[in-house]
Amino acid sequence: MGDLVTMDDLTNEEIVAILDDSERLVPVARGVVNLPLLEGKVLANMFFENSTRTRMSFETAMKRLGGSVLNFSSVGTSVSKGETLYDTMQMIDGYADIAAIRHPRQGAAQYSADAVEIPILNAGDGAGNHPTQTMLDLFTIRQSHGDLDGLNVVLVGDLRYGRTVHSLSHALVRFGASLTLVSPGTLRMPKEIVADLRSQGSEVAETESLQEQINHADVIYMTRIQKERFPDEDEYAKVAGIFKLNSSDLSAAKKGMIVMHPLPRVDEIDPNVDSSDHAKYFEQAFNGVPTRMALLCRSLGVEVPKEVK
Length: 309
Prior knowledge:
Helix content is about 35%, strand content about 15%.
């Protein structure tokens, strides 16, 4: 049993093993195979911040494995009466076997993990980390490219506040990827993260031009400019809509290049890209189910069978 607060909680070997488990669980995630590995277990979905894909894929993952789910949001609960996170988590410790938590405050997932006995899965903490998203991203990349080693990955958009790209960049360099960071100057990846990535021996380039990177990329990972993270609306207005990907931009892209996005998108990817062979973002969203299934099993100490049928 174990928490997953950041990707540092997993070794490379554990990451690969979880991706292998996820692969075997795809038919269960699609509802083709019934495999009630988590029957009798209860997941608490603790969402103090809005979510569609993460919350629903956790719920689907747990239910497809025969477990049940308590859905919590800060609206309409005792949080609105001033209950502390510590007290809320103490309550959940008695109601559930495992909890996924999303919170606007960076560090809230680690705080919760320290406060309770049940395993905690970080479903996004402020501008900090989003490791379960990283696992589904790695799964999507491996599905398309067969491997994670030595890929040229272009991360685009809000690299300052984007917890998704913070977690993903750290994981990718552990597998030998080269990174190109594309963002406006005000939304560059934090210097300490870039320094850490380079210290691991990775090639990391920074630029403000997306077009120049498209033809060399194996993966283009688009992100939205997150209005809710900006302290100043005028600053947001300066960078909103700065990067847009159209199908015409992909005419000279590598045949196997994939376009990813953690969603929701605003206008970073034109809908005309959706029908392209490069588009993987809806498949990526589905991949949250088998990867979160594998993570739930890992944290609860339940082994995924070597053959699922």
